[in-house]
Structure to design on (892 residues):
């Protein structure tokens, strides 16, 4: 064929075609550039969204990592706080009286003025003073220096979130309140230390006191339960399916089931937990135990799939060598294949647990969004978890909770990055090529 | 007490292991040849003690609550529970329980105090009985296992049989879970449809689940036509996919064909971060940044935009789905055999032409499967819509309007209300059933398509 055509048309046979190709080349290359441009635009869009996401969280959340405090000299008046009447006593009166000393022009006998003044202090200030006095009753009658958080509006003011140039009527603090705050600042009583309360306090209605301790502990219990259940079950199921199961209808069915389970919406798992664990078995509502159980069922498919991949990656030569020296099938798997696959299994497990840590919807349905002001001491106590705490705070109307929510998200993302970091480290440390 | 039972079991397991191992060693020291290694004799004892008693303990703990409740109810004086609804009975039960824990509000009736005392006795008896049963069982099992230690006892085979059984059990947990989901949903859904007609639910266009829970309460009558809820879900999912599909596909095309190796290595993990962000964070992002931005933009061009728009929820969900679609498309494109790519390039096609005319069509089944999985995710996604979409069901397809979704209704119907005897809470299970069926069908279809496609080139 080729011979004949070349003979007929001479040395430059496809002149017209080459010409057409040459003419269209610019247009075709342009198309290629356009396609590439679209691709770059798509990637830039995704990255831009990520940057905006993180940027907005950081810009609204970083301020929750500091907390405005007032340093006060407090005279613990034995008349207000009688030693015999602990822990009850007029601790709030003690505080507002000592606050009044810094404002000689405020008439402390007027209840309204006194209340306005003590609004500077957080509602929790009297309780921290009470705890100090109860712990050491000898303080009664003495003048002590304490450092207490300011209430949320003043905290916002100190952080510049309450703008001084907005109209007085539209502002959360009137001019007199700002004046009082400025006076305290002039006296050098205001400081903005690191907000350790964010991690060490439990939840509170008052943003300046609200912290994540309860949520972190609750998440810990739920994740622990989730790990203790899903890890052994997942490994067992994966080993069976990968190494022992005969290829028949039953094992096929199990496999299809696991794949489908991995794609069932999380809220359906919440319905399962609500109806079965709480409704039928009467397990406690809001408990991390039930949350952990639910999360375990959700994490199970992830762990099974990861474990199977890790087992598959162990070369057959290892198995054959062990079988060759007389090991039984079980011995081969448990003494040779499984230890070699362990890094991969752990990586998959950590990634599965990281997903479980961020899961919210099923926890909402089992009631882990309750308002609880103390950290749970066991998996049976009512608790919240980090993502549900974020959900609760995101719903709160107080301005101060916006930055708290962002800060809580940053803490959650911190945990996630930490877990993923461990997974990546494990993968790199133990990765081997056979 | 419960902890003591578990500790006892644990100790017995260890003890059984060492006793049997020592016994086997003794046989070997006598110069006899053991069939199995000493270790297996030990493991045999440990497993025969641990497995049955552990199962028994779990069952006991699971059933103790309901059984004790029922006994207590039966022991109440005649006539106290007559004519009371399940909610009222639950309330009485809860009161008795809180009295038994020592928290007493007001002055409860005498029979409640008596019942609380009885509850405490029942619970104490139950745990004591449990401990006794565990102790006896543990001893019996250890003894039985010890008696079987002999030179010719095939301990290894027995141990392997037990571990195989355990592994099969692990594998069937997935099936149990599915059965649990289906049973729970069906049970409650059946109750719901005994109160609300099936056709009203499926074709009714008015969704107002706020019903009076007590007779004297003022609330809407309640209407359970789910069409507006389904419609809202479809609107939000459509918005999400119009964002996610083009961006995801173009990302995959660029990464697969054009991106330099180094760029690919940077972009891939960045996409993974996007995929790893919890959905509650996306929800907060939607209400903090996207919804106000959309609203502001709408106002600047003179449009009236609701505070909770389908557009805000959908577009943020779209961002969440980008990495999902792009990784699926990337896999599908990579699975196209190199020979097709080489062939097209050898014929003089540009890279773009190769991609659009050869690779992409060849990868279409895999990509469609991935997109379908994304659809099922968009339908089942909860937190973003709960936080950023509306609560009121409207018959509208306007993405600038506030719509609600199936998952939103499930969550809002169930928060703070657990008695399963009124249509309001049961409606959530009916919606969940619809959600489960819809996503299951899409998932099966998607997995089929993906799998079938993979088989062509493998």
């Amino acid at each position: 064929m080729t011979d004949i055509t070349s003979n007929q048309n001479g040395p430059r046979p496809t002149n017209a075609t080459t010409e057409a190709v040459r003419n269209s080349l610019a247009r075709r290359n342009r198309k290629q550039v356009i396609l590439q441009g679209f691709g770059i635009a798509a990637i830039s869009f995704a990255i831009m969204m990520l940057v905006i996401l993180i940027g907005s969280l950081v810009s609204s959340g970083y301020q929750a990592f500091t907390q405005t405090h007032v340093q006060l000299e407090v005279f613990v008046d034995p008349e207000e706080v009688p030693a015999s009447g602990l822990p009850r006593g007029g601790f709030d009166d003690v505080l507002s009286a000592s606050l009044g000393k810094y404002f000689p022009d405020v008439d402390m006998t007027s209840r309204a003025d006194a209340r306005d003044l003590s609004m500077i202090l957080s509602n929790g200030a009297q309780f921290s003073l009470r705890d100090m006095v109860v712990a050491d009753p000898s303080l009664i009658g003495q003048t002590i220096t304490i450092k207490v958080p300011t209430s949320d509006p003043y905290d916002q003011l100190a952080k510049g979130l309450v703008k001084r140039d907005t109209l007085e009527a539209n502002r959360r603090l009137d001019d007199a309140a700002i004046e009082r705050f400025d006076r305290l600042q002039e006296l050098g009583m205001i400081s903005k230390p690191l907000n350790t309360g964010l991690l060490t306090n439990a939840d509170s209605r008052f943003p300046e006191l609200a912290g994540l301790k309860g949520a972190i502990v609750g998440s810990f219990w739920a994740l622990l339960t989730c790990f203790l259940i899903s890890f052994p079950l997942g490994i067992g199921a994966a080993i069976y399916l990968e190494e022992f199961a005969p290829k028949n209808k039953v094992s096929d069915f199990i496999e299809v089931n696991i794949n489908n389970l991995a794609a069932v919406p999380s809220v359906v798992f919440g319905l399962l937990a609500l109806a079965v664990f709480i409704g039928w078995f009467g397990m406690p509502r809001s408990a991390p135990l039930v949350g952990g159980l639910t999360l375990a069922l959700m994490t199970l498919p992830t762990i099974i799939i990861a474990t199977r991949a890790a087992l598959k990656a162990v070369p057959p030569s290892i198995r054959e060598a062990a079988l060759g020296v007389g090991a039984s099938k079980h011995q081969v798997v448990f003494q040779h294949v499984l230890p070699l696959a362990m890094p991969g299994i752990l990586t998959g497990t950590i990634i599965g647990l990281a997903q479980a840590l961020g899961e919210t919807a099923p926890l909402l349905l089992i009631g882990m969004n309750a308002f609880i002001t103390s950290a749970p001491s066991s998996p049976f106590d009512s608790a919240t978890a980090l993502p549900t705490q974020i959900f609760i705070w995101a719903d709160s109307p107080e301005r101060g909770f916006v930055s708290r929510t962002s800060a809580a998200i940053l803490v959650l993302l911190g945990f996630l990055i930490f877990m993923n970091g461990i997974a990546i480290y494990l993968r790199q440390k133990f990765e081997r090529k056979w | 007490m419960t902890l003591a039972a578990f500790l006892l079991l644990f100790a017995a397991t260890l003890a059984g292991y060492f006793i049997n191992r020592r016994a086997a060693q003794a046989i070997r020291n006598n110069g006899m040849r053991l069939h199995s290694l000493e270790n297996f004799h030990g493991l045999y004892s440990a497993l025969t003690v641990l497995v049955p008693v552990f199962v028994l303990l779990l069952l006991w703990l699971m059933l103790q609550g309901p059984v004790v409740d029922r006994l207590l109810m039966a022991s109440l004086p005649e006539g106290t529970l007559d004519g009371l609804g399940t909610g009222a009975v639950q309330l009485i039960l809860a009161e008795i329980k809180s009295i038994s824990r020592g928290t007493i509000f007001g002055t409860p009736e005498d029979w409640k105090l008596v019942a609380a005392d009885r509850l405490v006795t029942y619970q104490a008896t139950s745990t004591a009985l449990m401990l006794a049963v565990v102790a006896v069982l543990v001893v019996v099992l250890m003894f039985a296992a010890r008696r079987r230690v002999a030179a010719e006892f095939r301990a290894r085979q027995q141990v392997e049989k037990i571990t195989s059984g355990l592994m099969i059990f692990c594998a069937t947990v997935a099936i149990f879970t599915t059965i649990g989901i289906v049973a729970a949903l069906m049970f409650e859904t059946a109750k719901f449809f005994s109160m609300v007609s099936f056709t009203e639910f499926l074709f009714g266009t008015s969704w107002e689940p706020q019903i009076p829970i007590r007779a004297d309460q003022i609330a809407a009558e309640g209407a359970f036509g789910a069409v507006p809820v389904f419609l809202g879900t479809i609107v939000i999912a459509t918005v999400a996919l119009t964002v996610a599909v083009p961006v995801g596909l173009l990302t995959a095309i660029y990464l697969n064909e054009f991106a330099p190796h180094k760029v690919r290595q940077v972009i891939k993990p960045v996409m993974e971060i996007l995929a790893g962000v919890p959905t509650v964070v996306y929800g907060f992002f939607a209400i903090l940044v996207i919804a106000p931005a959309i609203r502001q933009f709408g106002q600047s061009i003179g449009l009236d935009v609701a505070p909770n728009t389908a557009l805000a929820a959908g577009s943020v969900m779209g961002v969440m789905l980008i990495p999902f679609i792009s990784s699926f498309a990337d896999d599908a494109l990579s699975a196209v055999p190199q020979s097709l790519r080489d062939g097209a390039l050898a014929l003089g096609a540009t890279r773009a032409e190769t991609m659009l005319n050869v690779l992409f069509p060849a990868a279409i089944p895999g990509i469609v499967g991935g997109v379908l999985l994304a659809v099922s995710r968009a339908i089942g996604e909860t937190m973003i819509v709960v936080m950023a979409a509306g609560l009121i069901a409207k018959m509208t397809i306007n993405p600038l309007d506030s719509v609600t979704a199936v998952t939103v209704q499930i969550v809002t119907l169930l928060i703070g209300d657990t008695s399963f005897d009124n249509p309001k809470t049961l409606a959530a299970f009916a919606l969940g059933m619809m959600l489960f069926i819809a996503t299951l069908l899409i998932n099966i279809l998607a997995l089929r398509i993906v799998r079938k496609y993979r088989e062509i080139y493998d």
